[in-house]
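Q: Could you predict the 3D structure of Lipopolysaccharide biosynthesis protein?
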Amino acid sequence: MEEKKVSIQKSIIWNSAGSMVYLITQWLISVLVVRLSGVETAGILTLAMSVNNVFYSIAMQGIRNYQVSDMKEKYTSGIYVSSRLIICILSFLVCVGYALIAGYSYGSSLCIVAYCLFKMAEAFYDVYAGICQKKWRMDWIGKSWMVKGILSFVGFVAVLAVTQSLLAAILAMALVSWLVIFLYDIPRAKKLDTIKIHLKEKKNITLMAECFPLLCYQTMSSVIPTIPRLVMEKLLGGVALGIYGSVAAPTMIVQMGASYVFNPFITLFAEQYSSGNIRDFWKTFRKCMAAILLISVVALGGGKILGHWGLELLYGDEVAAHEDLLLPLIGCTILTAIVWFLCALLTVVREIKGLVICNVIILPVSYFGAYLLIQQYGMQGGSISLAVSYLIEIGALWFWLLRKVKQREKQHMEQ
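A: Sure. Here are the predicted structure tokens for Lipopolysaccharide biosynthesis protein:
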């Protein structure tokens, strides 16, 4: 088996470049769907994306950061893969059930289910990416995201242009993603570790039970930003959601770009925390936060200067007329990135209790805030409610992280 590692710098570059290509191609899909099929179709796609954020989070189990910070290898790679396969199947079945009873139109329900197939491919691949990350082969992860991004984009756009069927375009995207997993990702991961899938292995249940609080956190974490969009669709209609989703799409680059900066460091954080090297832990923390803040400043400045021009170029006058939504949405993505970072660190230090408590507290804030503020301020209310929720959560997450790291520092000094 190949055990060769690459440098942290090379890992970050490849992982960031590949992930950014994937993110941009997914964003371009949301742009071109407006151009090719109109705002109403974009609204259906936004709805499918929003709904599947929840099922994707369930399938992810919140285990990736747990997996790559499993320094003692409590569970084998085969167990991580097996448990992920089981939960992906269950998540898809729950999505089908939800689509049947949620009261959406027949066409929207089919698109939701089809998009779930696509998101399950992402979730299943994530566990193989975790294997590569733990072995410091994130160059393979980046290359995989590049291939998936380009091929899924070409497949989606080509099928939509020819058939004018959003359902067919989503299915094409899902098919391409699954093919890349079986033809590229799995063979690469098997070069790094022995991976034997045992669906009946008792350790699958043990792992899922141990990480059930992480699943709860991950699900709640995805529900929090989804709530304002679902409330918006109910109160303001699909067209408003389509406009809001279109303006929000470019801002995802900020959020994901920030995550691509700190995600490669999760294993390093785990190594530093496990060894009691708290000084270097905080040093790495400051570097990651500085990078997030730098990205934030650039994003806000770019949005202020180029916002209207960019929206008009991408979507036309109908969406560009709502440029006032852009800067608040950029602010929300910055806060989201900080929340993700702090949540990842709480997983690394195994402060799962605090992680769950923080998200439980924020759920009702997001729900009631969305209803009150969207009724009061329209689409802008969705961003305001999300920002308020995240500011409260950041404060709570910081409290739990600081408390846990201080405890570890004290333990290390007493040894």
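Q: Anything worth pointing out?
A: The first helix runs from residue 8 to 37.
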